[in-house]
Amino acid sequence: MVDNIETDVVIVGAGPSALFTVFELGLLDIKVHLIDILPRAGGQCSELYPEKPIYDIPGHPTITGAGLIDNLLAQIEPFHPTFHFNQLVTELETLGTPEAPAFRVKTDAGATFTAKAVIVAAGGGSFQPKKPPIEGIELYEDKSVFYAVRKMEEFRDKNVIIVGGGDSALDWTLNLHPIAKRITLVHRRDDFRAAPHSVNAMRELVAAGKLDLRIGQIVGLSGDDGELSGAHFKAGKEDAVVIAAERLIPFFGLTMKLGPIADWGLNLNENLIPVDTAQFETNVPGIFAIGDINFYPGKLKLILCGFHEGSLAAQKVHRYVYPDKKLTFQYTTSSTNLQKKLGVQ
Ligand code: FAD
Q1: pLDDT digit string (tens) for 68-127?
Q2: Which residues of 46-72 are buried (b: 16+ CB within 10 A; e: fewer)?
Q3: Which of 20, 46, 50, 276 has its Cα between 20 and 30 A from that of 14?
Q4: Can you give the residue range of the structural domain that contains 286?
Q5: Ligand 1: which of 17, 33, 44 to mutate, most ligand atoms within 8 Å of CB?
Q6: What region holds the FAD/NAD(P)-binding domain (predicted)?
Q7: Is position 144 annotated in a ligand binding site?
Q8: What are 220-223's contacts with CB under 8 Å, separation 24+?
Q9: Global ipTM
Q10: Residue 338 in contact with ligand 1 by CB distance below 6 A
Q11: What separation in Å is there between the alpha carbon of 161 and the centre of ligand 1?
Q12: Are residues 111 and 160 in the same domain?
């Protein structure tokens, strides 16, 4: 891993507000790295309602959550933003002065960034895994119990139990099946919420004897020093039996938590970050907050508001990144300069 990544701006979160802000920053020649704890871009749109139609995106009478994110990603393609997924931003340290801000950002995956401005686009907070009610599970976390797959190699040649019935559980059952020693999928009922093609693929592997499917629950764990040796499986009223396993991946859904943002020295108003409505800057010069995470009189938690807020924040960010350059307002329809940046000239 690179020791420290230097960039103009770090955006915390990769939801719709963050994505459109990359576009506005890109037009101003500002380089961006985005960090999200999720494995993909799109925030709530991707995670909570990818297939639902949205009816209040300007210019789109209807578009699904996933469709909107695909379009935003296509729109920012010319600016080549760098995404860092599966990482929680844990620390934000102020290094510079109010006139010339600089920040150090750290993630729980050990990545460090320095930037001239930080935009917090953290929505309702970071999506974090819901934990199953298994006594003592915390002793095994990050050693042999994982709530997300960050490195597939962790699971090579291991007996792996995956718990859950949604897309994440089924996708990882299918993805890890070729490299794991044996996969056991555990779900509390024989009915899956995941995409039908994934469920069919899983059932075919079970029928071919290449995968185990057990209907019931994991109620306990055995092992030493955080290294799992088996999980206690209980089906209905039957006694629990031990399934040998060195890895357990429970997928019990996600919950949104404010998390470490509360420790960054930012003023908070009921877990929201107050900002001014000219620049969407927080009480710390150089740190901005846009989208669902911010607060100001009249705030509406709508995607279109996040787009507007990011556009105005970008103007002030430009002053920090290019203190000696004058910013001239230009339209994309008529500016050949902007069109060159977009690759359409
Ligand atoms: P989010 O989409 O919440 O994205 C924030 C991202 O930041 C998340 O991915 C999160 O994991 C990440 N994050 C937070 N903290 C950290 C951290 N410390 N480290 C790493 N990552 C972090 N809006 C509309 O305008 N129209 C609608 O019709 C509409 N329908 C909706 C339907 C539903 C069911 C829901 C739940 C919401 C709906 N919304 C709608 C609201 C809309 O989805 C939100 O306004 C929008 O997603 C906010 O975008 P955002 O980028 O600010 O935050």
Answers
A1: 999 999 999 999 999 999 899 999 999 989 999 999 999 999 999 999 999 999 998 888
A2: bbeebeeebeebeeeeebbbbbbbbeb
A3: 276
A4: 4-127+255-342
A5: 44
A6: 8-301
A7: no
A8: 220/134, 220/135, 220/136, 221/134, 221/136, 221/137, 221/140, 221/145, 221/248, 223/140, 223/144
A9: 0.99
A10: no
A11: 31
A12: no
The length of the chain is: 345
Determine which residue's CA is closest to atom 18 belonging to ligand 1.
89
Would the annotation count 36 as a binding residue?
yes
**Residue 68 Cβ contacting ligand 1 at under 6 Å:** no
Q: What is the DSSP letter of 245?
A: -
Q: Locate tokens 């994309």: which residue?
A: 332
94 annotated as a binding-site residue = no
Q: What is the CATH number of the domain that holds 70?
A: 3.50.50.60
Domain boundary at 251, 266, 289, which? 251
**Mean pLDDT, rounded, for 154-176:** 96
The total of structural domains in the chain comes to 2
* Residues 213 and 71 occupy one common structural domain: no
Residues 9 and 111 in one domain: yes
50: Cβ contacts below 8 Å, ≥ 6 apart: 42, 64, 65, 66, 69
8 A C-beta contact, residue 309 and residue 318? no
Task: Say what the pTM is.
Answer: 0.83
Query: Would you say the CB of residue 305 lies under 6 angstroms from ligand 1?
Result: no
266-308 confidence digits (pLDDT tens): 999 999 999 999 999 999 999 999 999 999 999 999 999 999 9
Reported as type and span, the H/E element at residue 126 is strand 126-129
Decide: 292 in ligand 1 pocket, CB within 6 A: yes
